[in-house]
Design brief:
By secondary structure, this protein is mainly beta. The protein has no helices and eleven strands. A hairpin with a 2-residue loop joins β9 and β10.
């Protein structure tokens, strides 16, 4: 099973920016799609963004225009750059690869 480790969460003010990283173990990273999800308290987990093995990206409506997902296959790492953050972006952010999930990283947007 793939191990995924997210990092980069924290507290940021509204309008600020934050970058998340997710490092994967093993050798299958490059051939699979990877996704970033988030889950706010009391809400269902939702897809934030995904990127295919070929680099095609998809963004959820709530973050479109404010997020950029990218991947570095040489480093087995996927990134999520978020800008113009809003309080409603507050959630635990998870990365997902095949049938594995990371432990999540907390993002809090508050003044």
């Amino acid at each position: 099973q793939v191990q995924l480790v997210e990092s980069g969460g924290g507290l940021v003010q509204p309008g600020g920016s934050l970058g998340l990283s997710c490092a994967a173990s093993g050798s299958i990273f490059a051939i699979h799609d990877v996704g970033w999800y988030r889950q706010a308290p009391g809400k269902q987990r939702e897809l934030v963004a995904s990127i295919t093995s070929g680099g095609t990206t998809y963004y959820g409506d709530s973050v479109k225009g404010r997020c950029t997902i990218s991947r570095d296959n040489a480093k087995n790492t996927v990134y999520l750059q978020m800008t113009s953050l809003k309080p409603e972006d507050t959630a635990v952010y998870y990365c997902h690869l095949v049938n594995s999930w990371g432990q999540g990283t907390q993002v809090t947007v508050s003044s």
